[in-house]
Amino acid sequence: MSEPVRLDTLDRRILAELQRDSGQSLEEIARIVGSSKTPVWNRIRRMRAAGVILGQTVILDPVALGFDACFFVLVRTSEHEPEWQRRFLGAVRARPEVLEAHRLAGEIDYILKVRVPNARAYDAFYQALIAEVKVHNVTALLSMEEIKSTTALPV
After folding, report:
1. Residues 116, 122: Cα–Cα separation, whole Å
2. Domain formed by 69-142, architecture
3. I need a labelling partner for 28 at 20 to 30 A (CA). Which of 61, 73, 83, 139 fits?
């Protein structure tokens, strides 16, 4: 695991602005954080090189695109061999419906965040997953309401 990168107040303000809207111009970011364009650009380049900034992307509205159903899928397995894990992780990583996947401590082995148009599409995802890899128990929880969703870290 890598060490945290040392950031000063200006770095953190720049990161907060990039998280808020990475599409804004360098001039706008510099104005908001109280600096000029060149120092802001140099700091952004330094933070990219250090691995603080991993990339830039666009956040889409899943409902506007027809992905109305969000399921949290709890997976328990009785298999813990490296080959099973390789197949399971490969299957999960290959499925575009899986937005997040985490290995957990405790009674549940994995949790997946799955975004699909509806319950029928979830069932197709589930059937494909269990056809690829054996799992002991799967519990799907349908999110009734998204209360908070963010990618922004509290810098």
Report:
1. 6
2. 2-Layer Sandwich (3.30)
3. 61
